Hints:
This protein is of the alpha/beta class.
Amino acid sequence: MLANNFGTERLALPVIGAPMFIVSVPELVIAQCKAGVIGAFPSLNARPAELLDAWLSQIRSELAAHAAQHPAQPPAPFAVNLIVHKSNDRLMSDLDVVVKHRVPIVITSLGARPEINEAVHAYGGVVLHDVINDAFARKAIEKGADGLIAVAAGAGGHAGTTSPFALVQELRAWFDGPLALSGAIANGRSVLAALALGADFAYVGSAFIATREANASHEYKEMIVSSSSPDILYTNHFSGVHGNYLRPSIVRAGLDPDNLPLADPSKMNFGSSHEAKAWRDVWGAGQGIGAIDAVPAAADLVGRLVREFDDARARLLEAASVTV
């Protein structure tokens, strides 16, 4: 069942396009899936809430048409991200729409609830849960998640601080189910490295912000292209949860990135107009942006990742044969 949901035989590369607040929209998800990677979007991006049904209908319709036209290369599956935090008053209504459309993969964040997992399992879907440490991972699996997304140091948006080497090592000591790794993955070599560490998928976000289909401003995309890892700032100031943001966007918003007060985590309100404004004006990105030097179509980005992945794998195999 899990293999069918992930559509591993339909993937050009074991990559999940990370669901990014505001940025991920049907056009990007459809392009990712057609190119052979799993596309995803947060349900909260569909505003008003009634738009979620239309978005899922559009995605399913266009991917079905593509499959009919390209039977030898059907599209990859798609995923919807549900924010489980108590401040999300849309959660249960969005879940109803997800169940209606039998979304193959559901990604849960900021909370693990058994009833969400049970609802997805009832129609045969699978649940991946975002975690930043081993303790959260164990709770997620205990509550019925099928797989994990290890959000390691360097990931864009709400990220952890643990090295991907350490985090995957700790998770694989007890968990042998589906595992995706997030954290500064922006080229094909990094995708291969994620697999070498023990992950099943690489979770790629920032590189897809700088694509034509992404719902990001021209200025945001160009800032991604012109920036590198020193331009990333880790702070909880904007949402109450620590995350990685572009320093130049903080300056652009009239703030001093070196003097941002800590926010009160109890004031988190995901999906609120304040939250949307913060992410609209202050832009998230991960430390891997130094690998991004253009704004291509999503399909061209996937093509680059595939070439880099294949080249890196060939070099490793050649090195191994010489060593032997």
